Amino acid sequence: MNLSVYIFGSFSKGYSQYPDDYSSAIFQSFAAGAKATTQIAIRRDGNLMYYGYIRQLEQGKYIGFCVVLNGLYLTQVNDLFTLFEQEIFTLVAEGLLIHFNERGEIETNVERLYLNQDEAAPVTQSLRAGFAKLESQCEPLPTVNYGISKDSRQDFTTSDDQTQIVQSSYTHGYTYVYKGDGYNTARLNSYKGVLAKSYKEKKELKTQYDILRKQHEKTLKEKKQFKKVLILTFIVVLCIAGGAFLFANLNDTKGRLSRANGTIREKNTLISKKDDSLSTMKDNVSTLESYTEVLRNDKEELSQKLYEICSFAPFVVKECTVTSTSFNFDYYAVEEKEVTVTLKAINERNSEVVSNSHTLTFYKGGGTKSLPFLYQLSTSQYYYVVLMVDGNIVAGKRW
């Protein structure tokens, strides 16, 4: 399958692509026509078909992928969303080129892709492997219809008729398929929700902290002003007092001082309460930051555990079914690898074992496999069917 793979986008230092060649004008025209958070952009240029994907990021940035086929076109366009969206999840989960910020938004700190070739190269390899699985959906490219402008454009959504979308892809110069929602995987939405909730709680605590700080500053100012008023009042009372009324006025002054001291004590108590509240808010902010760090560590630990699981078994069976002639299953793998598996069917009644081995290639990201039994099982008997790798059972079912 003759194809080329590109990564492109608007990053912190402007537009960049990997590998860098003459195709940049086509990719930038894809971005200019983007209207949704995600979209497939298709360009026919003679005998070449450009299948592009653009994902909008924060702050006006975007990242895109493009696979170029020579002499072939795809008969199913919507399947590309699944392939590209899974690649977006992998990049975010591993922090390659793009990542989540503290608000749960996807952003990038990449300046130029040629400075990040170690991260970009595995992405192109993954997309190349993913497109290889779609080879059965490819057909020879019809001749160019010169009655239609090479720069003509057709817009669709994922709910539109697939036949019309495919026909437009090889007939018109540009074809766009927009997807307004459902573009995140379930795990990506889960990560995003946790971070967004954490950021919201942190922001609310910061707001409460600012309110209490202002109230505290106001209380301190009132306390200083009250002391000044108290001193002035005392001086005035001393000046007025005199002569025969000195003793009576002194008693009156003592009463006022007593009441003033009571007010001061109340103010001091209020200040103490505000200080306690402020300290509590600071503790809450610290706790939230610690919780955020725990979440980040949990994410790294989950990724490590996934790789550890896959080191024990090079793939994980997600679902399996059994017929009288074959064992069928869906799997997930973190890397492409050739593995020899053993398929056994054990007769429940007489313990007869039907066993054979298969050497298969498991692709990164997952797929579906169907393994035939050595011979057809009896539909009137019950069997325990197991799939084994290196003597370890990785899947099984009673049939």
TrEMBL record:
<keyword id="KW-0472">Membrane</keyword>
<feature type="coiled-coil region">
    <location>
        <begin position="195"/>
        <end position="222"/>
    </location>
</feature>
<keyword id="KW-0812">Transmembrane</keyword>
<keyword id="KW-1133">Transmembrane helix</keyword>
<protein>
    <submittedName>
        <fullName>Uncharacterized protein</fullName>
    </submittedName>
</protein>
<keyword id="KW-0175">Coiled coil</keyword>
<feature type="transmembrane region" description="Helical">
    <location>
        <begin position="229"/>
        <end position="248"/>
    </location>
</feature>
